# Entry
Amino acid sequence: MSTPGVQLPLAVEFFPMGERDLDAVAVLEAGLQTFPWSRGNFADSLLSGYSVWVVRIGGELIGFSVVMRVLDEAHLLNIGVAERYQGKGYGARLLRNAMECAHLAGACRMFLEVRPGNARAVELYQHFGFRQIGLRKAYYPAVVGREDALVFEKELG
# Structure
């Protein structure tokens, strides 16, 4: 029995991304990035057999992750959380899910790239034990020219 006037938290649910999710994921990505992945990029990730997940709260799609695994390595290709849900731990839960799925699939380490100016993401990755192992010059498109990428790595398991 519920208490009148008390709102229970909505369930946070993770699902493998499906074709039905592509439009919503592409819209979410477009709202997060100046140079977003296209719907086709996400569709290609599904077709390639990448580990692609969505997270929903009360049925609303609020985030996604895309991980490519090659042999015993995983590469976090993309991860995003709707702006109004950022800073509330959902990105951490998505990242944890991505790492656990990669490890269960046989990956021993995970790599990722991140823009140096994305302080929130850099802090999240460092919190989870990722360490910077390199720099890719002019990796990302930018409003003017190109932007470098920090390369991070973490041992899984």
User: Anything to note?
Assistant: The two ends are 41 Å apart (CA to CA).
